[in-house]
Amino acid sequence: MNIVVLVKQVPDSGAERTLSADFSVDRASSSNVINEMDEYAIEEALKIKEAHGGEVTVLTVGPAGATDSIRKALSMGPDKAVHVQDDALHGSCAVATSKVLAAALRTLSPDLILSGAESTDGRVQVVPHMLAELLGVAALTGARKLTVDGSQLTVERQTDEGYEVVTAATPAIVSVWDTINEPRYPSFKGIMAAKKKPVQALTLGDLGISGDEVGFAGATSQVLEFNKRPARTGGAKVVDEGNGGEQLVSYLASEKFV
Amino acid sequence: MTVDRLLPTPEAHDLLDLTTELATRELAGKVDDFEARGEFPRDVLRTLGRSGLLGLPYPEDVGGAAQPYEVYVQVLEILAGTWLGIAEAVSVHTLSCFPVAEFGTGKQRAMLPEMVGGELLGAYALSEPHGGSDAAGLTTKAVADGDDFLVTGTKAWITHAGQADFYNIFCRTGGPGPRGISCLLADAGTPGLMPQSPERLMGLRSSAPAQIVLEDARIPRDRLVGEENQGFTIAMRALDAGRLGIAACAVGLAQSAVDYATAYAKEREQFGKPIAQFQGIGFMLADMATGVSAARALLLNAARLKDAGRPFSIEAAKAKLFATDMAMKVTTDAVQVLGGAGYVADHPVERWFREAKVLQIVEGTNQIQRLVIARSMTG
After folding, report:
1. How distant is the Cα of B53 from the closest Cα of chain A, in angstroms?
2. What is the pTM assigned to this prediction?
3. Which of B11, B46, B51 should one mutate to test binding to chain A, selecting the residue with the greatest count of A CBs within 10 A?
4. Cβ of B11 and A184 within 8 Å?
5. Percentage of chain B surpassing pLDDT 90?
């Protein structure tokens, strides 16, 4: 099975993050890592390859610095990578990014596309759906379990209440949550091997996309201002003067916990 | 504090980065629970094995990473700074692959990929209850019986006893003294090979050693590693390398103690200022840091001699002696810097203090190291 995993480099969600002066994600002042959820997509791709054979390709759209994350991803075991890199991409919205990813995916004609269900920087969760639309393939999103049987895919789609079972035939895109598996650590041999794996560089020109379709110029949404998350405020305090239990229950009831 | 390390290759930096990632993400969150329960972290070792950390010095054709000791000991250092039990397990396992890797027959060496890859865990059974330091006097006896040896005796202080998949059993096949000893490779399932209950230790509780009682344990003759009666040479060669491993554990442990005590002294205020600003504390921290750097320099020098194929045994003994005595002193001082807090198990210096003690004892007590060094000088 020909599998492509979408891998995004994001600022480390465990560190202080902010936006640049132009309201794009600030990548300079933070340490950049593989989007956490994408590691689960890589693991799932490797497990499918181990069970059914095939090839795993990492696809990244991002600046030159994203090479570090591509090598890290390759050190887990994928066979090769494609890196779409173009200065005009700076400031692209989800719609434009999807357009670029779709164009790159057409050159790879995968049976299965895997991605994280969301990125820890944008967190809009729309790219897998947009790609399904642009490529005309099925979208099985938010998976906590994926079963491959020939060309038939069965997914347990995680919801707030439980899960739904959805199926589709390949080609399809599956986005995964961190409940789906436990990503492996790279091995030392994997790190060595990753240095020699092919990374194909593509520009917008290679994909037949013009600069004004992407970046700030082609953005369908615009950030006007941003504020830091407000500091946490103190919650309600219950003083037990004989009716503490009642107060607690009525608080829980008001929050619909009971 | 980040240690500025001069490493021989770019991949050595990658390896230490990987080790740091594993220590941070896989070890740091688990060590306290496993130590408290006294549970052996077999799965954590499997994870390290899959990442390639259990056979670093061995050749690539048997699944190793062909790393020089200079690099391998720094991996141990980083692991020990987080979890001594794991570093010690990696060191002992690596040691337990040594006899087969260096002296094994073709058939024995066929097992190496699984040993070096960590799927099979190894143990090294040399010490006996009445004689740890006097290894040449060991009494566990092997007698030929057809195509097998029947082995009887008791081994003591065996790391991974009851956990290991294979055991290097050093036993007497000839006359008294060092020239009558052989090394046999025994499977865990060998009838008559009986690991006992783990010892109840002061520290290092997640990797407690145990005795192994052997009663007519039947080990096939084709499991003889090296020549008959060559065992003592094999044991000593392995121990020379093992001493570097323990020195590395001491350096890593002490580095963590210095870092922790320093951070604490910068936070903790008395008489209106951080205690680090009192010279009495600052000088202690300076001496601790200097001790760690000096021990690391001795360790790396001995490791580089080994990598260059030069005699390194005496320098390894000096490194083991100095680094472990230093670790005992530094962890003692780290407890002192923290004061009452240092005596409480909520802070890791309490554990490091208990752990440092064992390093002065294992792989040849520090008295034996002094004996080895003195003999090399006075003949």
Report:
1. 8
2. 0.86
3. B51
4. no
5. 92
